[in-house]
Design brief:
CATH superfamily of one domain in chain C: P-loop containing nucleotide triphosphate hydrolases
Number of strands of chain A: 0
Shape of chain C: globular
Largest interface: A-B, 41 and 44 residues
Largest sheet of chain A: none
CATH topology of chain A: MetI-like fold
Distance between the termini of chain C: 46 Å
InterPro entries (chain C): AAA+_ATPase (IPR003593), ABC_transp_ATP-bind (IPR050319), ABC_transporter-like_ATP-bd (IPR003439), ABC_transporter-like_CS (IPR017871), Oligopep_ABC_C (IPR013563), P-loop_NTPase (IPR027417)
Structural class of chain C: alpha/beta
Family (chain C): Belongs to the ABC transporter superfamily.
Chains: A mainly alpha, B mainly alpha, C alpha/beta
Number of helices of chain C: 22
Radius of gyration of chain C: 25 Å
Strand content of chain C: 15-25%
Strand order of the largest sheet of chain C: 6-7-8-3-9-10
Structural class of chain A: mainly alpha
CATH architecture of chain A: Orthogonal Bundle
Helix content of chain A: over 70%
Protein name (chain C): Peptide ABC transporter ATP-binding protein
Oligomer: heterotrimer
Shape of chain A: flat
Number of helices of chain A: 11
Number of strands of chain C: 20
Number of domains of chain A: 1
CATH class of one domain in chain C: Alpha Beta
Main location (chain C): membrane
CATH superfamily of chain A: MetI-like
CATH architecture of one domain in chain C: 3-Layer(aba) Sandwich
Membrane topology (chain C): Peripheral membrane protein
């Protein structure tokens, strides 16, 4: 028989090692992942270690310029208008920045993804109502929503998460629905129907695993987007309120001193750029790594051809 | 989508779209009307701190804030039917007049910016896709990713520091001369450029590996013609969608950029009106934006049909 | 040595892939003369298309690389030419047509534009190109050429699209036409017409025709000489008739033996007693399109009923309707006397295990994210009463052996198997349900000929072992000849003829059945030559 020879089997070694080598194959993605890991560590442990330093005012060091080691390494990036070291504040602010974006992405992807599954799989009018709801949310001005929430509820991190999560729901709703509509027509879903599989089994065992990589990729990109959105809100004064702190708020706080102390706004902005850039690079990598038909490009070991 | 129904089909298609958008808009206006009232009484924002209780009462009476919300809403709808969109508290002018003025600025900003973005992203993205992994592709991809990652308020600030404060080349804010447009357009340019370039590149890579491009090569068609005649028209469909999304974002108000550069557009008007509880203006902004975006989506559907003969409405 | 029009000498091409570097072709040599038809015959993965791609400069480098050899066109080595010189040859001197004309025509430009472009690219003025394009459309048999010029590829039928491709390829009067599986995606009756057209055009122009195919019938119909390829190398070459009569290489012999439609036809069995499944007056509409127009059929226990028809005949709609994948609009389907269409979902669930399906393309019908074990045992997850969990492993291994795979393959994913193996997995999955009837919707059409024969043999063996019934959907008559008890011929949503297999093949009644039989190509070049002669005679009578 000629059709009994199989294609080469999976290489030995754990799944973790395989993912690592695929990451190493794309150097940009590797450094992006490294940077994100650093940012994550800052977010987890930064406030514990540097909270005190970051809030200590030092009127003699007001707007201290960067790259001046006279005050110690913590002042390497300079100090803000109250003489607080920028490096420490950026590290501490990482927590809120990441927390807000992470929580908002998680919440909106869960809600939007679930609604999208329902809207895509059920043929009933429920799907129409879900889509219209998505339209209304999509066109509701997020600024107004932010102001409403800010006015009605306490200005807190949780409420910013609420605002951002609500505005991002339509993205997941639409993507999931479009994917489900496509996947449900695939042959293996019909094969499952022929076997008598229940709707629940078809949705969770056959459809969801196929669309999950797309959702993860989008969520990564969206994490970057939500970070930018949170920064914009904070910048406009209707997001996070002092004394809570995020990178976007730091940029905003530095704005009055633009002419004589550019570094107040520059460094936190750079932190935002590097993080979003890393997320973009990582999501580009994921698009390949999570696709079984594309994965070989990375498994070939770093050669980038076509 | 696939049915060719001629002119009457086009009309009923627009009709259906108008109804769907209209339903969403009505829902939105109702929602915004009631939710925005939750943000508090504008009286305190407009009268001096030492205004007397009578003055406050008179202000409320004059603008009808004393009536139950449902009565206010009924009055608003009744006016709306006569195309009266209410008055701006802040500017003491008809709200629609204020909004249309701001919209004309934003519209010009959007058209200029998106024209530049579209041309640049298509040319650079197509060339990058031609030699995937080549040096040009890597540079273009890297810079487009940075562009797509940069927060616009930060770019605006950095641009002001460099070009206005340090170099004194360009004005920081206002709309007086052509020079005033350079900074806002440049800053608004960067993010859509990065995003659209990525989409052009991806779409073009797909198209260039398609069977009909293989046919064109077998025909002996020259490479530039393969890319820009055979490839581009096919690659444009997903690109147009993203161009539309990005244009909609600017039309909805590039709040941050307009605020930083003191640009009297619809975004700045929106945030100012929200913060000062100028409800009539907020609602008028929403309706004008919705109409603009509805028209733009029609334009995009039209572009689809022009590009791809298989698409008929 | 006389100079050939086109000669490939010692060509080797390698590709970089996930599995490492693959030698797509190794040391391949052949030649083509003016007015001659050379067929390159091979199955998927044989490298039969690679030399053509090398000639047309269509190999992307990387991942491909030409490691050795020369391609001589009129005595000059094309591989030594610069890109501009090769571009000028493409289309003008050597033109190519492909398997799937819909994908290979640019969807957004009118066909007239695309044909004219071929000529303007190589220097013909626009007005003259337009005139010639009209002539060409007329010549290849496109009705209303003026109007057709302005239409788009999607507005034509499959056969017409291939005619358009041919018109475009011949626009510059090339010396050589390369046809890569030109008729594979077409219905048999259309295939015959397209091959006829190619042959007539070759006689008119005296061009060399290089035909790449997997189909012995196509070779028998049209080729003067044949090159047989396997695994990237040429295993045999010679005159088409001589190779068929007296194959030297074991692979060629195997290929010829595997061609369907030569074995003994099964004896029609007696049809007594209650049918297992019976459909009465099935109707199905898709919008305005009437896909099924009152279909009646009955399948007895242990019987194989084949449904044969061309695209648009409604045969797949029928298959899907029988399993209620698409509910019919009218009629009834009786399974052991109970109407499937009237059942509640709960009642239907109990019956699902009796009625199973094997789909056309196993790549798509197997969930790519499940292992073979998960795929097969899913039957028992859904119907837990079939088998206790403790015995799953044992039973999966047993089923894998039964379909000709190894038990230790249970842990692998579908993409690690070849097409034929995947279809075996799909069959094992159907068997796990212990069904009474399996509906095979073009279950072997996507497979190579030699694999096709193996899968059919497997299905036949399983029928005997388990007393299964099959409803076997196919577009090709020879495939069902050795296998089916009864044959139903469908056209445009209706049954035009039905009967025992012998009756259909030996004494077809309906003209459409006769046309189908006449159009299907026999692998024997002599038989094809005889049929051709008969056809010409008939045509001569008609015109006389």
């Amino acid at each position: 028989m000629t059709d009994t020879q199989t294609l080469s089997g999976r290489k030995p070694g754990g799944a973790l090692a395989r993912w690592f080598s695929m990451l190493w194959a794309d150097k940009f993605a590797f450094f992006a992942a490294l940077f994100l890991l650093l940012a994550l560590l800052c977010a987890l442990f930064g406030p514990l270690l540097l909270e005190a330093v970051a809030t200590k005012q030092n009127l003699r060091g007001r707007n201290a310029p960067p790259f001046d080691l006279a005050r110690g390494w913590i002042y390497i990036l300079g100090a803000d208008a109250l003489g607080r070291p920028l490096l420490a504040r950026i590290v501490v602010a990482a927590q809120n920045t990441m927390l807000v974006a992470g929580a908002a992405v998680l919440a909106s992807s869960l809600v939007g993804g679930t609604l999208g599954l329902v809207a895509g799989y059920s043929r009933r009018s429920a799907s129409q109502w879900i889509m219209r709801l998505g339209d209304v949310i999509m066109s509701f001005p997020s600024l107004l929503l932010a102001v409403i929430v800010l006015y009605m509820l306490e200005p807190s991190v949780a409420n910013i998460v609420l605002v951002l999560a609500v505005t991002r729901i339509p993205i997941y709703l639409r993507t999931t629905r479009a994917e489900v509509l496509e996947v449900r027509e695939r042959m293996f879903v019909q094969a499952a129907t022929v076997m008598g599989a229940s709707h629940r089994r078809i949705v969770f065992r056959h459809i969801l695993p196929v669309i999950l990589p797309t959702l993860v990729t989008i969520a990564t990109l969206d994490f970057a987007f939500v970070m930018l959105a949170e920064s914009s809100l904070s910048f406009l004064g209707i997001g996070i309120q002092a004394p809570e702190i995020t990178w976007g708020l730091m940029v905003s706080q530095g704005r009055p001193y633009l002419t004589n102390a550019w570094w107040l706004s520059f460094w936190p902005g750079l932190a935002i750029i590097l993080t979003t850039l890393s997320l973009n690079l990582l999501s580009n990598w994921m698009r390949i790594a999570l696709d079984p038909t594309q994965r070989w490009r990375l498994e070939m070991g770093g050669r980038r051809n076509g | 989508m696939k049915f060719s129904l001629g002119r009457s089909g086009m009309k009923s298609f627009i009709g259906k779209r108008a109804i769907a958008s209209g339903v969403s808009l009505v829902g939105l206006v109702v929602l915004v009307f009631f939710l925005s009232r939750l943000t508090g009484d504008p009286t305190d924002l407009y009268l001096p701190l030492d205004a007397s209780v009578e003055m406050r009462e008179q202000f409320r009476q004059m603008h009808g804030f004393n009536d139950p919300l449902i009565v206010q809403f009924g009055r608003y709808v009744a006016d709306l039917v006569q195309l009266d969109f209410g008055h701006s508290l802040r500017q003491a002018r008809p709200a629609m007049e204020v909004v249309l003025e701001a919209f004309s600025w934003t519209f010009r900003l959007a058209v200029i910016t998106m024209s530049c973005v579209t041309v640049a992203a298509i040319v650079i993205g197509s060339l990058a896709a031609f030699r995937v992994g080549g040096i040009f592709d890597r540079i273009a991809t890297f810079f487009s990713l940075i562009g797509a990652s940069a927060p616009d308020f930060w770019l605006a600030i950095v641009a002001i520091v460099i070009f206005a404060v340090n170099l004194h080349w360009l004005p920081t804010s206002g709309t007086g001369t052509a020079l005033h447009w350079i900074l806002p357009v440049s800053v608004l340019f960067i993010r859509p450029f990065g995003l659209i370039l990525q989409v052009v590149r991806g779409s073009m890579i797909n198209v260039l590996s398609s069977a009909y491009v293989k046919t064109a090569r077998a025909k002996g068609v020259r490479t530039p013609r393969i890319i820009f005649v055979h490839g581009l028209r096919n690659a444009m469909l997903p690109v147009i969608t993203v161009i539309g999304d990005q244009a909609a974002a600017i039309l909805n108000g590039a709040v941050v950029v307009e605020t930083v550069f003191g640009f009297p557009g619809i975004g700045k008007l929106m945030i100012d009106s929200i913060l000062l509880r100028d409800f009539a203006v907020v609602l008028a902004v929403i309706m004008v934006s919705a109409l603009a975006i509805f028209l733009m989506n029609l334009l995009i559907d039209l572009a689809y049909a022009l590009l791809d003969p298989r698409i008929r409405y | 040595m006389a100079e050939h029009l086109l000669e490939v000498r010692g060509l080797s091409v390698e590709f970089h892939t996930a599995a490492g570097t693959v030698n797509a072709v190794q040391d391949v040599s052949w030649h083509l003369d003016r007015g001659e038809t050379l067929a390159i015959l091979g199955e998927s993965g044989s490298g039969k298309s690679v030399s053509a791609s090398a000639i047309m400069n269509l190999i992307d480098m990387p991942p491909g690389r030409i490691t050795a050899g020369a391609i001589l066109f009129n005595g000059r080595d094309m591989l030594a030419m610069d890109a501009e010189e090769r571009r000028a040859i493409n289309g003008a001197k050597i033109a190519m047509i492909f398997q799937d004309p819909l994908a290979h025509l640019n969807p957004v430009y009118a066909v007239g534009w695309q044909i004219c472009e071929m000529m303007t690219t190589h220097g013909t003025p626009g007005a003259e190109a337009r005139r010639r394009a009209l002539d060409l459309l007329e010549r290849v048999g496109i009705p209303q050429p003026e109007a057709a010029m302005r239409k788009y590829p999607f507005q034509f039928s499959g056969g017409q699209r291939q005619r358009l491709m041919i018109a475009m390829a011949l626009a510059c009067k090339p010396d050589i036409l390369i046809a890569d599986e030109p008729t594979t995606a077409l219905d048999v009756t259309v295939q015959a017409q397209v091959l006829e057209l190619l042959k007539a055009l070759q006689q008119e122009t005296g061009m060399g025709l290089l035909l790449i195919t997997h189909d012995l019938g196509v070779v028998a119909e049209i080729a003067d000489r044949v090159v047989v390829m396997n695994g990237g190398s040429i295993v045999e070459t010679g005159k088409a008739a001589a190779v068929y009569r007296n194959p030297q290489h074991p692979y060629t012999r195997k290929l010829i033996d595997a061609a369907p439609g030569k074995g003994a036809m099964p004896e029609g069995r007696e049809r007594r007693g209650e049918p297992l499944v019976k459909a009465v007056g099935l109707h199905k509409h898709y919008g305005l399109f009437h896909a099924l127009k009152g279909i009646d059929l009955a399948i007895m226990p242990g019987e194989t009923v084949a449904v044969v028809g061309e695209s648009g005949s409604g045969k797949s709609t029928l298959a899907r309707a029988m399993l209620r994948l698409d509910d019919p609009d009218g009629g009834e389907i009786l399974y052991r006397g109970r109407d499937l269409l009237a059942m509640t979902p709960r009642e239907l669930f109990g019956l699902r295990r009796d009625l199973q399906m094997v789909f056309q393309d196993p790549t798509q019908s197997l969930n790519p994210r499940m292992t073979v074990f998960q795929l097969i045992s899913e039957a028992w997850v859904i119907h837990p009463d079939i088998l206790p969990k403790a015995r799953w492993r044992e039973k999966v291994a047993e089923l894998l052996v039964k379909v000709g795979l190894k038990p230790d393959m249970a842990g692998r994913y579908p993409h690690q198997f070849s097409g034929g193996q995947r279809q075996r997995i799909a069959i094992a999955r159907a068997l796990a349900m212990e069904p009474k009837l399996i509906v095979c919707d073009e279950a072997v059409s996507a497979l190579d000929v030699s694999i096709q024969a193996q899968v059919i043999a497997l299905l036949d063996g399983l029928r005997r072992e388990f007393g299964l019934s099959y409803l076997f959907i196919a577009h090709d008559l020879p495939v069902v000849r050795d296998f089916a008890d009864r044959v139903i011929v469908m056209k445009a949503g209706e049954i035009v003829e039905e009967g025992p297999v012998r009756q259909i093949f030996d004494a077809p009644q309906h003209p459409y059945t006769r046309a189908l039989l006449a159009a299907s190509l026999d692998p024997d070049p002599d038989i094809q030559a005889a049929r051709r002669a008969a056809r010409n005679l008939e045509e001569g009578r008609v015109t006389a």
